[in-house]
Amino acid sequence: MKRLLIVDDSKLMRDMVAACLRPLGAVTFEFAGTGLEAIERLALAGFDLVVLDLNMPDVGGIEVIEFVRSQDRLRQLPILVVTTRGDDDSRARVLDAGASSFLAKPFAPEQIIDEARRLLTPERATT
Predict the structure, then answer these.
(1) Is the pTM of this model over 0.90?
(2) CA gap 76, 56 in Å, rounded
């Protein structure tokens, strides 16, 4: 059973991402509505994938990525950033900070499930 953490300040977006990822099969979802809540969950439990928004009211997505990459036990955790910031500069910042992949909102359900499948495989490659 794979554990996924979905982090977005919009409950609607968290629910939509989970609905898109349900076809993955043997997965459980946990949710965080803020960056700080995400950091707390990541510090306490193990996950197989984080789906992360950048724009949050307290701790932003870049800071969450930096926290994850600074922790030995989390360093290899795949992070899929899903954000409204679809420009090349934002993409470069996210990937430079250590995200595994990047999708701009709005996205097609096939896009997010394909990225999640790729990131959940042991031989995944960073994009």
Answers:
(1) yes
(2) 23
What is d(CA 91, CA 29) in angstroms, rounded to the nearest whole number?
A: 25
Cβ contacts of 16 within 8 Å, gap of 6 or more: none
| Spatial separation of the C-alpha atoms in residues 29 and 4, rounded to whole Å | 5
The rounded Cα 44 to chain-centroid distance in angstroms is 17
**Which residue has tokens 């595994």?**
100
At CB < 8 A and 24+ separation, what contacts does 38-44 make? 38/5, 38/7, 38/64, 39/64, 39/67, 41/5, 42/5, 42/67, 42/68, 42/71, 42/74, 42/77, 43/71
pLDDT tens digits, residue range 32-85? 999 999 999 999 999 999 999 999 889 999 999 999 999 999 999 999 999 988
